[in-house]
């Protein structure tokens, strides 16, 4: 509960895409521990909905632990869920509508939703290319644009946007030629938005996770030899956990980062500087 003690996001409204599991879930819990009310976006499948509902209950308990209040307290519920394919622009509109109708505003956005099927370059099906781009890059564009329009209307308050890019934005991947360009695009999107949205007091930054253990890469990391190789490359000596992404993201969403925009923060245990 280290983030809770800081209270960095007290009563902030933070929307997080792809929050039902993995990195998104870790960030959602961290934001709640730091005092935020959280909009939990998920794809809408039966499994994702179940995971999202469990996360909402966990955030409600965190809120009770922090405030001693239960359920629908003044200022709105601890968390709400929104389902939909982030590659569809209407999902971004629904995220904004739900946040504004429930809380009256959005203070922060974490654009996290992403997929990473593994294929060698010559075997990448065109539909996999289109779907990966649609979720990872198009989806980020749609939700950032929709939320930024709402934040502009909230002047002079502004807001903070953090996109989850990847160490893969900086290096290649033999089975990720359809994935790495989207993560480079997300990083670039935040850099351009940092300029475009600065007149409205909207800060835009990205976090670049290294190898974080999530359902996306569970099968890939099940190979003991590959896992040992990955761990050996990381100076801190272990793979990342979803909760490792929470602290840097909460910082960038908070007022402690009021003079930080257009930045890209590596969260990789030192892997990038140790690449050989």
From TrEMBL:
Gene3D superfamilies: NAD(P)-binding Rossmann-like Domain. GO terms for molecular function: oxidoreductase activity, acting on the CH-OH group of donors, NAD or NADP as acceptor; quinone binding. It holds the Pfam family adh_short_C2. One of its GO terms (biological process) is fatty acid biosynthetic process. Keywords: Coiled coil, NADP, Oxidoreductase, Rhamnose metabolism. Residues 45-72 form a coiled coil. InterPro entries: NAD(P)-bd_dom_sf, SDR_fam. Belongs to the short-chain dehydrogenases/reductases (SDR) family. This is Uncharacterized protein.
């Amino acid at each position: 509960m280290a983030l809770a003690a800081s209270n960095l996001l007290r009563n902030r409204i933070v929307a997080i895409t792809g929050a039902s599991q993995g990195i998104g879930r870790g960030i959602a819990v961290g934001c709640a521990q730091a005092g935020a009310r959280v909009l939990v976006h998920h794809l809408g499948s039966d499994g994702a909905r179940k995971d999202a509902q469990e996360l909402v209950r966990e955030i409600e308990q965190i809120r009770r632990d922090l405030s001693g209040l239960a359920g629908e307290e003044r200022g709105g519920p601890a968390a709400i869920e929104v389902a939909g394919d982030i590659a569809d622009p209407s999902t971004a509109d629904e995220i904004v509508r739900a946040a504004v109708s429930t809380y009256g505003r959005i203070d922060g956005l974490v654009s996290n939703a992403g997929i990473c099927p593994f294929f060698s370059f010559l075997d990448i099906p065109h539909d996999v290319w289109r779907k990966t781009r649609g979720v990872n890059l198009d989806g980020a564009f749609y939700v950032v644009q929709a939320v930024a329009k709402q934040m502009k209307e909230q002047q002079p308050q502004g807001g903070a946007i953090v996109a989850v890019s990847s160490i893969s934005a900086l290096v290649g991947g033999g089975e990720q030629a359809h994935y790495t360009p989207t993560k480079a695009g997300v990083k670039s999107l935040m850099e351009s938005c940092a300029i475009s949205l600065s007149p409205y007091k909207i800060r835009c930054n990205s976090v670049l996770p290294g190898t974080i253990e999530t359902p996306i890469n569970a099968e890939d990391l099940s190979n003991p030899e590959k896992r040992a190789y990955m761990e050996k490359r990381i100076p801190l000596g272990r793979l990342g956990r979803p909760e490792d992404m929470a602290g840097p993201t909460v910082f960038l969403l908070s007022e402690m980062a009021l003079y930080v925009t257009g930045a890209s923060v590596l969260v990789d245990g030192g892997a990038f500087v140790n690449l050989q």
